[in-house]
Amino acid sequence: MNEMPSNPLALIAELTHRCPLHCVYCSNPLELQDRNTELSFEDWSRVFQEAAALGVLQADFTGGEPLTRPDILDLIRAARAVGLYVNLITSGLPLDESRLDALVQAGLDHFQLSFQGAREEIAQEISGTKAHSQKLRVLEWLKRHRLAVTLNFVIHRRNIEQLPEMLALAESSSASRVEFANVQYYGWAFANRDSLLPTREQLTQSIDFLKKAQERLAGKIKVEYVVPDYYAKYPKPCMGGWGRKLMLITPNGDALPCHAARIIPGLTFENVKNHSLREIWECSDAFQKFRGEAWMQEPCKTCDRRALDFGGCRCQAFLLASDAAATDPVCSLAPQRSKVDAILNEINFAEAGTAAPSTAPIPAQHLTKPAWLYRPNPS
Amino acid sequence: MSVDLDSRPRLAPGCRMNEKTQQPRTLLMPERALRLNGPSLEIVERCDGKHTVRQIVAELQQLYSKAEPTKVEQDILGYLALLQKERALDFEPAGT
To answer: Nearest 5°: phi and psi at A148?
Structure first.
């Protein structure tokens, strides 16, 4: 039988799927939820109370774009009132100076501003929106507030060369943290993967660069770096382990163990309108499904690392091996690792081909703008 | 990174303790939470921008009078350096 879970530490609140950006690697599911299905303020308010009672410490307000909720100030106040630490993860788009003042007044603890690149051109290509100059304005406004600021750069093949410019932008801001998170391949990013996955050479150079940056900026700016799973030797402990630390609530109130869990066949998700968070956390099938170790297959089952990475990511196992209970195929010990190697070989070989003798045809996708699949804005 | 004994540490923007009514006492910060108890709680409660590091050391040496004073000082300096690395502290320089 599964172990009794410890309490969750963070609640990821997807307040809405509406968003002015159309990023080609959006972490939202392919099937987006409409505005008319979104939880009301009263529902969210109760969810925050139940979360705090369950031992949750932090609430991550995300989306979509959380600032598209007209009641965002009330939501921040409600979460703060029950003692939660409030993070806002935003594009910075539906924002002006006075609204930022109001967010801080409402009790916002931590402002995370997402960036699609260091320059307007790439940011516009990736997000399908002109947003970069607004983000630069937001950075200036943030300097006037006593508030934790993180810049979140999402990294991939087409912007990884801009790391020095991105770091310079962070250093010229009031940020105390900067995250360089390589795209991970689920949902929209999975569909656009061939145009996003960096080459091995790009990745090696970026790691060298950021290691030096971490040392130089120690005590001033915390520099975080997330490499793409596909290049890792061992998988990440996804979400700190299934149903161990985090709970995600979708705009309509469904409770998920992670962003992508809906892709796994056979899982049903309870809704916060019908059950308390405690009931869902402790008893629901979806949260129980991959808790503990009973579900594991070999080599995870007897692996020394199983308490470190919990077998990796269940959604990635399903996407790459068609079996959500398999060892995450990005693991070098996984029986299905060859599938990941084949994907990497294709990317690295095709890129190498561009420097090959002129008889080797250059793949057309490397000369022209990729045929991106953009994330739409739900109604 | 070394800690100046005459500087005055205070919690960085976006870093705060949970409420006194909430147990266990915890230092909340971006993407992290540190559980505080005993000496770590005593230290963080004094990171208020008023106490110098030297004063914090002296007060904890009194509080933990059975412990070796140099060990107490070393532990405090180590803990403050750790919090600084996490970007949980700002240090007001000496003489300001």
So the answer is: -70, 135
